[in-house]
Amino acid sequence: MTSADSKEVYVVVSALEAGQLTLPERLFVTDADPEKRATVPSLSFLIQHCSAEGQEKTIVFDLGVKRDLTGYAEPQQLHIQNRQPTVLRPDCADSLRKGGLEPAKDIDYVILSHVHWDHEGTPSDFSNSQFVVGSGTVHLLEHGAPPHYPKEIFDPALLPRDRTQELPPVESNSSTAHSKQTDHKWEPFAGFPATVDFFGDGSVYIVDSPGHLFGHVNLLLHVGDRKWVYLGGDCCHDPRILTGEKDIALYDDGHGNLRSVHVDTELARDTLSKIEPLLKKPSPSFGEPTEVEVIVAHDKNWREQNQHRFFPGRL
């Protein structure tokens, strides 16, 4: 949406129900109850953009859980057995239709934060959308990220290759892209060293957010005068990590070493250190007093407290 003075372009953001899964707290946060498990959402988001010239575009960020678990390969299904119970409906497509949009014809772009099973959803629902993924994602789908994430838990045929654009490598990334790359360039913005101004008008920034999985990206969205929304994907799985109340859990990897849910725990911590300033009110990451709402994909409390902001509602 265009602001009143037509100098800035804002977007409209709506949350989407996209399934739920159950996480054991001990694998995600420090000082956890070893028996506590919580059923949490895997949030998706609709972003509606209207350029200064009046051209409308729609983005869906993340697709959540598949509505049919048999759509996952057998090794994925075995992994998902450890995340039961799951809630499969409404899925992302259901949520869009509830608000009056048809996934097959009304969504221009699908941007995936990463390609773990609980974010990949059902890409075939979006049969005319362009898919945008972080650098190294296509290689990851084919080869995995062993030893923590073997190739068997990824689907190499997940994305439509003719409609998938992979963001170019960031200088610090070692992954090699094997798909059609976008012509976007990474630039620093708001304290982040690598962002892509997706529409070129300052309304939607893709943020390189390494650590959790190769190709992990977040979105920073301009929703109003000095108001932004940061969609953090799986930068962490519990907002108490962002606020400093908890830390990233480490646990035995089965081979006598410690690991976390991230492929690179220290890199994930570094990403969090760049997100944390956004929590301050006003945020020091911008050159003027600015409010930023930070939302991570599995925030159970956010979902429960913000039902009115799910599509057709808005943030």
UniProtKB/TrEMBL annotation:
InterPro entries: MBL_superfamily_lactonases (IPR051013), RibonucZ/Hydroxyglut_hydro (IPR036866)
Record protein name field: Metallo-beta-lactamase domain-containing protein
Gene Ontology molecular functions: hydrolase activity; metal ion binding
Keyword Hydrolase: yes
Signal peptide: none
Cofactor requirement: Zn(2+)
Key words, A-Z: Hydrolase, Metal-binding, Zinc
Keyword Metal-binding: yes
Origin superkingdom: Eukaryota
Stated family: Belongs to the metallo-beta-lactamase superfamily.
